[in-house]
Amino acid sequence: MLRDFRNALRRIQKYPIMCVVAIVSLAAGIGATTAMLTIRTAMFRNPPPLSPNPNELFEVFMPTVERAYRAEVPAGVFSLWADETRMVSGIAAARPAIARDVRTPDGPTMAIVRAVTPGVFSVLGVAPIIGRMSDLSTVVLSYRFWQHTFGGRPDTLGSVVRIDGTAYIVAGVMPERFWVFDTDTDIWTTLDVDRLPGDVLLAVIVRRRPDVTPGMLTQSFQSDVLRYISTQPAMDRKARVQIVQMEGTPMGHAIAPAAVGVLAACVVLTLIIACTNVAVLVIAQWTSREREIAIRAALGAGRWRIVRGLVAESLLLAVFGGMLGVCATFILLAAALRHAPGTVHLFDFSIDSGVLMRIALITIFSGILAGLAPALYETRRLQVDPLRRIPSDRVRQRWRNALVVTEITVTIALLVVTSTMVDGYRRAVSAGVDVRHLLAAAVEAPQGARIPEIRERLLALPGVIATAATTTPAMSRPAKRQRVALDGAGTNAMMADSAFVSPDFWTTLGIPIRVGRTFVAGEVGQSAAPVAVINAALAERIWPGRNPIGMQLWTEGRRYDVIGVAADYRNMPLSPPAPAVYLPISPSEPITRITFYVGAAADPANLVQAVRDAIRGVAVDHIVSRVFTLQSVVEIIGEEILTAVYPMTPLIGMGLLLTAAGIYGVLAFAVTRRSRELAVRLAVGASTRQLATLIAVLSLRLIGLGTVFGIGATFALSRFIRGQGGVFDSPSFAVFVVPMIIVFAVGALATFVPTRRALATSPAGLLRTE
C-alpha cells in the first residue's frame, strides 16, 4: 500500500494541472459537507442546554376554532392550573417579549423585556449565575445584556434600571447560553398573574412528574378548561388543551425540517458533482495511460494490483482535497461568525472530533467512489490480452458523457431548488403595500386607548402625512378570527380575520379599494345598519363571481351590510392573504390594544422617537410597546431569507464552476481524441462551420439530456417540499427557465473554447504529426 501511494504521488507530480483541478473540486465538495455537518452539530446535536431533564418540559396551548394555531392560554385558565401539584412539579407563564425604553446607570438604551412568573427559572431548573429573582420590584438580566450594557461588572447587582419610567432593582444574571421561549430577551421582569384580566393570553410551560404521561396531563388540564369556559358565555366552547414537548434547540420551529433537508441535499449534490468531475478527469488521464497499464499487466501485475494503484491515486487526491476543504471551512466559519447576529453566540460552531471523523470517512469514500468505477472499467479485460487495445474510445466517451449528464442534472437540481426558495420568499414577503414610508406603533391602554386624540397628535407631527388605527398588530398574526356567514343560520360559514379599523386605514397603507367605498364618520356607531368592508379573498370565497356590494353577512350574531371590497395584502409575512372582514372603530367601545400606522413623507425611521413621545403625551397610562418601520421588518425577513439561501449560494457557484469544468474537460478531450477525424474532414472539403456544428450538437445533446433529467427530478422534489408548507407554494415558470438558461450559457462557453482551438489547427500539420 505504501508503494502504491508513492507511485500515486509521482503520478500527481507528473500531471499537476489535472491534479490541482481534481483537488480543488473535491475541496469544494468536502468543505461544503464540513460546514453543513458543523452547522447541524451546533444547532441540533449540541444546542444551548434548555434545562435538566428537558423531556419533562412541555409548552401548553389552548387552540379554539377562532384561533386554530398554537394559541396561548388565558390568564384565567392559568390561575386554575397554578395550584396543580398532582400532575406537574412546576408551572410558569410569560407575556410576549416587547421592546422597552430602559435607562441604566450608564445611560438610556432599548432592550427586549419579557415578564415571567417568579417560578419560571425553578421550573426550568436553571438558576442565575449571580443573584436571584425575588419579587415584583426586581429584574434578571441576560448574560449578553449584562456584558454589553454593564460591562460584566459584579457590582451590577443592586443597581437600579428604569423600564418605561418604572424603577427596578437588578437581582440576578442568567447563564451565558440560557434561553427560554426565544433567544433575544435581554431582561426578565416578574409577572403578577393575579392582577391580569382573565382574557390576557400567556405562554405557559409545565414540568410533568416522571410518573405522569402527556395524555394524563392533557386530560387533567382539559377538565379545568371546560369548567372555566362554562362560566364564559362569549368563549368558544370547543377550546381544547394541547401540550407539546419543548424543542431541544432554541431555533425551535423557526427552522423547518424541510429547509434543513434541502440544505443537506444541496450539500450532497455538490459533493456528487465534485466526485463526478474528478471521475471525468481521472478517466481522461487514465485513457492517455492505457498503454502503460497494458504493459504493467503484461509484466505480470494482476487486475486487483493495477486497480489498487489507480484507486490510490484518486484516494490521495481526495485526501489533499479534504485537507484543503477543512482548512477553508475553518477560515470561512471564523469570518462568518465575526459578522453573525448576536444570537449566534449561543451556539458552538467549532469543528469537533466527531465532525472530523465523519469528514475523514467521507473523504475516503469520495476518493474510492471517484476512482474505483473508472479503474474497474479500464482493467476489465487486461488478463485476456494485455497489450491489445481493448477499450473502445466510443465506450469511454459514453462513460464520460454519462458523467457530464449527471453533473448537469445535479446542477439543475441545485439551481431549481434554490430558485424556488428565493421566488417563494420573494412573493411571500411582498405584503401587497409599499412599506418604505410606513411606521407602526403598538399601544397598550388598560383603560381604553384615546384613539382620536392620538391620531390628531400624530398628524400634527412634522413629516407625517397620514395616520390610521387598527386592532390587528402590524406584521403579525391577527388578533381575532371569527365566523362569517350569509345569514343568521350559518349558511356558507367560514373563518375570517376580523379587525376594527379607522376610516383612513386603506389610504394610509395604500391598499386600493376594488369595489365600493370605505367607512365615513357618520356610519361609526350606528346600530341600525352596521357596515363592513371585506377583502378580495373573502369576497371570492363567499360570493364567487358576484358583486358583494349591498350583500349582507353575519358575524357574532350581527348583520352587516358590505359596502366595499379591498385588495388583499399580507399582514403576516410569509403567509398567504387570509379572508378578512373590517369593521369601523366605535368610540363607545374601549379598546385596550391598538396599532397606529403612520405614513411619512420621507424616511419613517426619523419619526420613531417623535411618535413614541406624542402617544405618551396624550395619556401617561398608555404603554408604547413597540414603534418600528415596516421596512425594518421586511429587512429582518430578508435576513432570514439569506440565512436559508446563503449557505446554498456558494454551493451553486461551486456546482456551476465544476459543471463548466466537467463539460469543458469532456469536450476538450473528445475534440483532442477526434483531432485526426477533424483533420481528415477538413482535408476532404468540410467547412469549419460544419465541424463546429458537429461538435456543438454533441454538447447540446449532453446539456439537453442533463436539463431534462434535472428538471424532471427537481419538479418532483419541489412538489414534495411544497407539500411541507411555507414558501414553496406555486413556483413561477421562471424558477425552471432561469436554471436552464444558466446551464446552457455555461455549456456554450465550455463548447466554444475547445472547438475554436481544434479548428484553428492546420490539417496538414496535424496529419503529418499523426
In angstroms, what separates the terminal alpha carbons?
Answer: 38 Å
Total helix count? Answer: 21
Rounded mean pLDDT is 76
Overall helicity: 40-55%
Strand percent estimate: 15-25%
Specify the biggest β-sheet: 7 strands, mixed
| Count of β-strands | 23
What Rg, in angstroms, do the CA atoms define?
A: 34 Å
Question: Shape from CA axes?
Answer: elongated
The stretches of 5 or more residues where confidence is low (pLDDT under 50) are 723-727
Structural class: alpha+beta
Structural account:
This protein has 770 residues and is an alpha+beta fold. It is built from 21 helices and 23 strands. The strands form 4 sheets. Strands 15, 16, 17, 18, 19, 20 and 21 form a 7-stranded mixed beta sheet that branches. A 6-stranded mixed beta barrel has the order 4-5-10-7-9-8. Strands 1, 2, 3, 11 and 12 form a 5-stranded antiparallel beta sheet that branches. β4 (98-104) and β5 (107-116) form a beta hairpin. α2 (16-45) packs antiparallel against α17, α17 (648-673) packs parallel to α20 and α19 (688-722) packs antiparallel against α20. It is elongated. The model is unreliable at 723-727 (pLDDT under 50).
